[in-house]
Structures
1.
Amino acid sequence: MWKYVLKRIGLAIVTAFIILSVTFLLMKTLPFQMPIGTNNEKFSYFQNQVFLGYVYDYARANDAAGKLLWSYQDGANQWHYYYEVPAFTQYFKWLGNIITRWDWGTSRVISPNLSAIVIIGKRLPVSMLLNIISTLISVPLGIILGIIAALKKNKKTDHVISTLVMVLISIPSFILITFLLFLLCYKTGWLPSKWPSSLAPMKTRILAFIIPVASLSLGSIAGYCRFTRAELCEVMESDYLLLARTKGLTKRQAIIRHALRNAMVPIVPSILAEFLSIMGGSMILENLYGIPGIGSLFIEAINISKPDYNVLFVDMAVFTTFGLLAGVLLDISYGFIDPRIRMGAKK
């Protein structure tokens, strides 16, 4: 088992390295975007690029160096002519900067000259908190409703739950949050219409969680409910459960001791996959509600008129890491949930 775990972690690291390397080289083929701000801020940005090894700094124009990015005369009346370093040379510099200094570059637009890692670090906790709260709410509710629907199969309760599940699954989260904003904010005024600042009253900041958490949770609840119902119904019709009943177990004992335990094997690992899908779905939601998370940051960084490539790249790296980590945990979790499953075990 441990050999398999180490192998999966190693493959995830290699996969992440390949994805990020290809992404970095592709981004370097895009047209160079000038930083915004004053000339001093631009000068500081280019000096940092020179330090990182992404830009050449010449004291005079050098046509052999390629396309001139920017020229500037500093306070000491010394000229600086900046030329871009070839993409593959930048790539090896990028690897060295990450390994030696954990430096992923600086922001060009969103927070000029501020480290992209620092920007992500400020935004990540909000997104994680929203997704963790949504998961803690949606998992138990979804599983409980799925169990109720399975136990009441083809009865009125099952039909009502199944209908609500179909409706909620069919509605995208950004449509749902738009409806909730209209109903609970603009129509009634019960909740804040946008994410409050850190200086807002505690009550306002707590109320601000209701709309985004509800938008993220309702679809997940429906997904867990449908999956749990399907798995439990299949287990309840199996031969071994019928055998358990013939041995004298009551219906309740058979369901608790056998049906639920076996149905949970595919359900529990799906929580990780659902958490990842929530992370992806929160991009549009955060942008609509003005939440300062990594989802809205991705939209800001990919802005067509003012792209911020370094921030965008680190944001993509975070989502890639979450995706690969979820895949590893998903595979490993099967072996711990069901003792009969041992990944990589000898026959």
2.
Amino acid sequence: MKVIMTGGGTGGHIYPAIAIADEIKKRYPQAEFLFVGAERGLEKTIVPERGYEIKLITVAGFNRKNPFKNIEVVRKLMKGSNQAREIIANFKPDFVIGTGGYASAPLVRAAQKAGVPSYIHEQNAIPGMTNKLLEKHVRKVFLGFAKAGEHFKHKEKQVVVGNPVRDEFMTLTKEEARKKLGFEEDEFVLLAFGGSQGAGRINKAMISVIKELSGEQGMRIVLGAGSYYYDAILTSLREDGFEIPENVNIMEYIHDMASYLKAADLVVSRSGALTVAETTVCGTPAIFIPSPIVTGNHQYYNALAVCEEGGAEVIEEKDLENEKLIREILRLKSDPQTLSVMSEKCAAFGPRQATKIICDTVLEDYMNE
């Protein structure tokens, strides 16, 4: 069996692809895998770290603000399409699975033209343009949120599965996670992050949270600041004369997200599809602050889906005030019963079967070919 996984740019597209590949590999240890991503995406480092081979192609997204720049975009897409056809011809996959991002479009399209069965997974409640364009070329459209189905035309292709997450998010216990990280069992652990690059508004609010709440009895605060903001946050705190205490951990990037999410009592974060999936699978109550600058405001709808089930709260960035966030954190910290109910609702929303359903569907097609 030979499988191409394609997608990337951000962890939200990369990690679901890795989760699917890991599951197929468990079932078919001799299967060969090739990941195909974009030259400028995070996948060029993340995928090899997980033990998979990757090839990079030239792709870019269209510039809606400056149409003249799209001449170069079209040139890159033509080059990427040629590279995709060559990869399909040389690797000869049995099937292709795309998880979104610029790189998936030329690969899935090339596979379809070569008669190779193809599938896509849409992570968000509001789908991106790439997957909407690819819909007619694939056998199945796997959906992370049922709401996304409203934006696709071929209802017969849709399978609502949730978003695939890696096994470690489902197997680790809270006690194991805290022991691994050196956290006390009775600490209230607040985890905040905004993605690999960080989120400026969340970081700004968290500086106030750290200053205000680091002295709270039994409190531990963990901030994944992101590579873009990390140095600036440390500089800001130093210039304000604030000495970072032992119960505050500020990190550039959180590599072991499964352990930190499982150890946390409360999360403050953006609401990208992967973040929502990993947080809910861990059963960790959240205050989601959706990014307002994403296609179709999809992060808001991702967060709203969990909020409506009672597993999270949503504060839109336009309504975010530092003092308001501090008050809400303290309210939840002082109300273990509410947090417990939120945790149960959150865990019930978690897509624990997503990877299995995708693999069952694809591999059944493969066996029946």
